[in-house]
């Protein structure tokens, strides 16, 4: 936006759109609006199908519903600032709103990581211990797992997020993205940020990195179990049940790693690259997960085809 830092007070921040492309915002807003519509529609559709189809009331699909709900909330947490900039409604955000948005963005990222880890455990039990699958993953246990995921994701990030409220901000007040992130606010702070920096690093190691290691370990165990089966047809069938989850894992971790690399080593890159990578990190997993699970999971695919065919029959 063509606003100077002098035009806003010390408790608000400039949101960064695609610098130098302001004249093209009406055109840029079209694909972004379409993507957000697809994120909201796709994840709502997955949730609706799982809720209304009794045959999908199984642990695997309960965890998929958690993933869809997380992706839906991620889209809702950023839609007002990303599209607000492109539509010309907003150019700045207050400190309190910025802190709240960063809390939900980071909490939902940790939540997605936790759900993906739980889904890996689900696949491990289903393949390596199928006879005890229903007794291990009971409905009450799944509910408790869901509560633990929410608590783990949002409780431990509270101290550094609250701490942001008490910092002094005396730099340019221009954020590096179309939404608020913890690390972006730290770069604008003039206070002692060591607690937040070290705490955030430990949190990433003990959540995102640990989850990634445990997901990898679970797939090593799954691979060993599958390769021990003599029938190649059965091996192929078991591998097929894991493809959707593996795609979801890659869709989550690749954008995070890419965004981290851009922040760490890409200071010489155009601000547009930073903004684009930030939007890919926020939007790509919620956009692609419903598509992947709809295409690759036979039960979801058949139920959605039946849903659309019924709608077409009613229209006819």
TrEMBL record:
One GO BP: cellular response to lipid
Membrane topology (UniProt): Multi-pass membrane protein
Domain G-protein coupled receptors family 1 profile: 42-293
InterPro entries: GPCR_Rhodpsn (IPR000276), GPCR_Rhodpsn_7TM (IPR017452), Olfact_rcpt (IPR000725), OR51/52/56-like (IPR050402)
PROSITE patterns named among the record's database cross-references: G_PROTEIN_RECEP_F1_1 (PS00237), G_PROTEIN_RECEP_F1_2 (PS50262)
Subcellular location: Cell membrane; Membrane
Main location group: membrane
Keyword check for Nucleotide-binding: no
Keywords: Cell membrane, G-protein coupled receptor, Membrane, Olfaction, Receptor, Sensory transduction, Transducer, Transmembrane, Transmembrane helix
Pfam families according to UniProt: 7tm_4
Domain of life: Eukaryota
Gene Ontology CC: plasma membrane
Transmembrane regions listed in the UniProt entry: 27-50, 62-90, 102-121, 142-162, 198-222, 243-266, 272-295
Molecular function in Gene Ontology: G protein-coupled receptor activity; olfactory receptor activity
PANTHER family found in the cross-reference section: OLFACTORY RECEPTOR 51V1 (PTHR26450:SF67), OLFACTORY RECEPTOR 56B1-RELATED (PTHR26450)
Protein task: Putative odorant or sperm cell receptor.
Family: Belongs to the G-protein coupled receptor 1 family.
Name assigned to this protein: Olfactory receptor
